[in-house]
Amino acid sequence: MYPAAFEYHAPTSVRDALGLLGSLEDAKILAGGHSLVPMMKLRLAQPKHVIDLRKVPGLTGIKEEGSTIVLGAMATHWDVESSPILKAKAPVVAETAAVIGDPAVRNKGTIGGSLAHADPAADMPATAIALGFELVCEGPKGRRTVKADDWFQGLMSTALGEDELLVEVRVPVWPAGSGACYMKFPHPASRFAVVGVCAAVTLDKNGACTRAGVGVTGAGTKAVRARGVEAGLAGKRLDAAAIEAAAQKAAEGVDVQADLQGSVEYKAHLCRVFARRAIEAAVKRAQG
Amino acid sequence: MATASVERLIGKSIKRREDPRFITGRGSYVDDIKLPGATWAAFVRSPHAHARIRSIDTAAARKHPGVVAVYTGQDMTGVNSLPCGWDLRKEKNIPGVVQDLAMVPHMPLTADVARHVGDPVAVVIADSQAAAADAAEKVKVDWEVLTAVTSTERAAAGDAPQLHAGAPGNVAFRWEIGDGVATDAAFKSAPVTVKRRIVNQRLVANAMEPRACAARFDPATGELTLWVTSQNPHVHRLLMCAFVLGIPEHKVRVISPDVGGGFGSKIFLYNEEVVCSWASRQLQRPVRWTATRREAYLTDAHGRDHVTDAEIALSREGKILGLRVKTTANLGAYLSTFAPAVPTFLYGTLLNGVYAIGAIHCQVTGVFSNTTAVDAYRGAGRPEACYVLERIVEAGARALGMDVAELRKRNFIPKFADGFQTLVAVAYDSGDYGVALDKLLGMFDYKGFRAEQAAARQQGRLLGIGFSTYIEACSIAPSKVVGALGAGAGLYESGKVRVHPTGMVTVYTGSHSHGQGHETTFAQLVADELGLPVEQVEVVHGDTGAIPFGMGTYGSRSASVGGTALHMSVGKIKEKGKKIAAHLLEASPSDIEYVNGQFQVKGFPSKAVPFGAVSLTAYVPHNYPEGLEPGLEETSFYDPSNFCFPFGAHACVVEVDRETGQVKILKYLAVDDVGNVINPMIVDGMVHGGIAQGVGQALWEGAVYDDASGQLVTGSLMDYAVPKADMLPMYETERTVTPTPVNPLGVKGAGETGTIAATPAVVNAVVDALAPLGVDHIETMPLTAERVWTIMQTAKAAT
Ligand SMILES: Cc1cc2nc3c(=O)[nH]c(=O)nc-3n(C[C@H](O)[C@H](O)[C@H](O)COP(=O)(O)OP(=O)(O)OC[C@H]3O[C@@H](n4cnc5c(N)ncnc54)[C@H](O)[C@@H]3O)c2cc1C
């Protein structure tokens, strides 16, 4: 499989990368290449220019800044999956990365690529929404920060500007008494999420839910926050009945799409089942 | 000179000698062959399932830098249709033909109408693969899009679009086997009958290495060499030379080097290798092509695709009184090389299974549709037959309220050692079917499982068990018989043993290894029989320039047919060696025996000549028997007297997730009887891989066409779910050994048993798991989570 001809660029700074992005017509950023390159090989994407970020320093690494964990956009899924900082402070992020594709995919694919690509069946978007990631973009006019809620705008479309790079992903650390879990129903062939739900909860010392974040991916054209579920959890003691009742709202606001993996009805059902399961696990973890 | 008794090699799990090269990336596949000056072909394929070609504009493609030539079907004058190698016609006295096979043309590049997505209509040949791919996009085809039909059930319906002028109503053939009158009578008087629709969905073979070819015409010698991913290079050469291109066979050499899997899909002669061979002669340059995965999905022959109505008639005691089967088999858009044999003689003849059945009647209609051609895929016809029978048998047991294992036991054909005539033409070789199931039931606590299942059901959990007691027919033969059934080829095999002066041995087999491990198994066989270290024997295969002739590898025939041919040649080597040894020992040849790698005077191990001394003498014949030809090399062609019939019993335990419909396999047990075993590790590997494919069909795999557009929706590995290791359970496997009387090795065949057995065992298990919900049948595979969930919802709604 040969892609259509293109010109390859390998800038060595964010500035140069932005310069190329601003001046070249029909250019695409290349990160891990595990979404872009398959599309180019199938000739579904035929960019004239490819700007490779791998030689740009400073875009990798995972570090702690107060109550935030900062990930370079070029951190690979494996970097995320194996990060001691994430495992200690936001383990669900590492867990989500660990169920992406297979080891070959995780060794190459990046968190920035996944979030920028915004595949409707990608895993990380659910967790980004549930925990409230912030995405840092850099463009000719400097940096700006976008909340995960505002990031995913439609089928493979995001708030990223055409002249911008995604440079950083900021993960807030949830307080003590919190727990989170990502669960997915994998596509039997691709392992992408047919439905994936990330649930995060914080419980007070009486066991009441003071904060909940639930993100749903896979079922619709973009990952969304399950506001109905969150509302159902807020302030409640999360026993089985409360969780079940809240989870019933998991498909609300999801523009569920039918395909070979399931009808609208079935996928909506899966949203509810996986929401319940993810919340149950999150609550268990929050209880310690 | 006393030699210690040499250890037998047969029956030992010798590690596969080919594996180090494969797992270290040193294999040499077609795509690895270096050919200076080679050009690359890129095919322009129909994006439509059914469309008439108004015109093709190749001008822009021709101007693309690096392009050497662009051809369409109209340029390929003097080139004939790809042949179908299996004829079903009344005038040929082929048994069971109700309506003659429509021998529709299948041109290498279609010039009038494209009949499936991926049908090639033009080829661009360029200096590089990239230039060919770029230029192919510039070929402009003016299409008149026609309505398409892909559905097996609707292909022959009155309003379906016609694919071929020569096949009215899209019917390819009608065929039957068994006794309709006796079967009707059995059903009339039977107290219990059960009828079920059973769909065996279409599969894609998914060999790891995509098809590839490289054709090099040498203008100096007039010879054409074709490297191709083939399971049977001699058959490729014969079909291409004699039928399609009309070029002299002795000027063509076909080499099938390392091949990464076939599962049947690389048996057949395909458009691309014909086009590249033809173009290489036109251009006097090498022309090569390697399929993309997308092309593999669209053009490798698919498998299965049957819709069947099956009925079983039973006595109250559970005796099978009758079996009635009506099958529609979707053959796709064209007749692939052996397509007509698969849903007929490889299918109907297996419907007797392992049971004594009162009467059987089977009718098959083959239909054309706007889909990729269907042909043999691992098991080929036999999995379809086994699936129908093993599903309907369990349906019958449920209708009677009888245990599914018990019903089988009441119907097994009793043990026999030399022949059982079935009601569907074939005669089994040897069998002991009850023993396989008994052994299986001894591997776990069946009664205990039923108790556990009942307890689980109390808690709302859905556990199920399914069985499959299967029969398989392999090493299809003899040539005379298959010829009378319509085969255009013989089904013997050649085996040549060349002993070098130093006593080293090279073995040439007409079988072809594309994953089976022949280089190990055949070396093991020959070394064992000659009492030599296995390292002293090398195996050569896959080259018409080196091998006398060969029918190739499919239908689990390599060990039984190819192995026996080698065994015969080894026998001849020993006979000649005895004459040479007798001369050296000054004894009579009749007094010489071959023991532990030496020729000795019977009973006198000290009066002996080692193998190496005899071989040296054969090539340096100074002191040599009068009138005996020098050299030590023998060739044999073996044509078996019958098929071999492996059998066994498999069981699968599953749990169904009530909420999601996901099926989890908790346990998988298999007892297989493949006759004598040469290399147990390799046979285990075959069984494991076969089960994986069988489970894959039951739970995940399926080629799905979009009804309206005729597009293959599952056209990539991201959409078509091939089973991965972590989706499968640990298998527990055992064997019983019932040697076949058909060949002197007593080996039956092990390549397809798992695929045949596993699918019904898994589906039966899921049906059993869902029984508490009132489910007593599942019509369609794969049992994806959604399908199972939907069945559960429908069952709930009904109660
Ligand atoms: C076999 C296979 C299985 C997979 N399974 C899964 C799965 O189960 N779950 C899952 O979530 N994903 C899966 N993926 C996708 C994988 O996670 C990809 O790696 C990821 O979606 C894209 O990341 P990348 O770094 O490879 O991006 P690339 O492919 O390099 O780029 C993807 C897109 O994002 C843009 N982009 C990338 N980085 C930036 C940046 N920093 N700034 C601006 N734009 C950028 C590119 O221009 C491009 O349009 C799978 C992929 C494959 C090949």
SSE layout and pairings?
The complex is a heterodimer of chains A (288) and B (799).
Chain A: E1 7-9, H1 14-23, E2 27-30, H2 36-41, E3 49-52, E4 62-65, E5 68-72, H3 77-82, H4 84-89, H5 91-98, H6 103-108, H7 111-117, H8 124-131, E6 134-139, E7 142-147, H9 148-151, E8 152-154, E9 157-158, E10 165-172, E11 178-186, E12 193-203, E13 209-217, E14 224-225, H10 227-233, H11 240-247, H12 264-287
Parallel strand pairs in A: 1-3, 2-3
Antiparallel strand pairs in A: 4-5, 5-10, 6-7, 6-10, 8-9, 11-12, 12-13, 13-14
Helix pairs in contact in A: 10-11, 11-12
Chain B: H1 19-23, E1 39-45, E2 51-57, H2 59-63, E3 67-72, E4 97-99, E5 113-114, E6 120-126, H3 129-136, E7 140-145, E8 171-178, H4 180-189, E9 192-204, E10 212-218, E11 223-228, H5 233-245, E12 252-255, H6 271-283, E13 287-290, H7 293-299, E14 302-314, E15 320-332, E16 360-368, H8 382-400, H9 404-409, E17 420-421, E18 427-428, H10 433-442, H11 446-458, E19 462-471, H12 479-484, E20 493-499, E21 505-509, H13 518-530, E22 537-541, H14 558-585, E23 592-595, E24 598-601, E25 604-610, H15 611-619, E26 633-638, E27 647-656, E28 663-673, H16 680-699, E29 731-735, H17 753-770, H18 785-798
Parallel strand pairs in B: 1-13, 11-12, 15-16, 21-22, 28-29
Antiparallel strand pairs in B: 1-6, 2-5, 2-7, 3-6, 4-8, 8-16, 9-14, 10-11, 10-13, 14-15, 17-18, 19-27, 20-21, 20-26, 23-24, 24-25, 27-28
Helix pairs in contact in B: 8-17, 13-14, 16-17
The structure holds flavin-adenine dinucleotide.
Description:
The complex is a heterodimer of chains A (288) and B (799). With 288 residues, chain A is α+β, with helices and mostly antiparallel strands. Chain A folds into 3 domains: 7-52, Uridine Diphospho-n-acetylenolpyruvylglucosamine Reductase, domain 2, CATH 3.30.43.10; 62-172, Uridine Diphospho-n-acetylenolpyruvylglucosamine Reductase, domain 3 (2-Layer Sandwich); 178-286, CO dehydrogenase flavoprotein, C-terminal domain (Enolase-like, domain 1), CATH 3.30.390. In chain A, 35% of the residues lie in helices and 26% in strands. Chain A is built from 12 helices and 14 strands. In chain A, helix 10 packs antiparallel against helix 11 (240-247) and helix 11 (240-247) runs antiparallel to helix 12 (264-287). The termini of chain A are far apart. The model of chain A has no long low-confidence stretch (mean pLDDT 97). Chain B is an alpha+beta fold. Chain B folds into 3 domains: 19-24 and 492-638, 2-Layer Sandwich (Aldehyde Oxidoreductase, domain 4), CATH 3.30.365; 34-143 and 208-261 and 266-299, Aldehyde Oxidoreductase, domain 3, CATH 3.90.1170; 303-477 and 642-798, Aldehyde Oxidoreductase, domain 4 (2-Layer Sandwich). Helices cover 27% and strands 24% of the residues of chain B. In chain B, the strands form 7 sheets. In chain B, strands 3-6-1-13-10-11-12 form a 7-stranded mixed sheet, sandwiched between helices. A 6-stranded mixed sheet of chain B has the order 4-8-16-15-14-9. The longest helix of chain B has 28 residues, at 558-585. Chain B starts with 18 loop residues before the first helix and ends with a helix. The mean pLDDT of chain B is 96. Bound molecules: flavin-adenine dinucleotide (FAD).
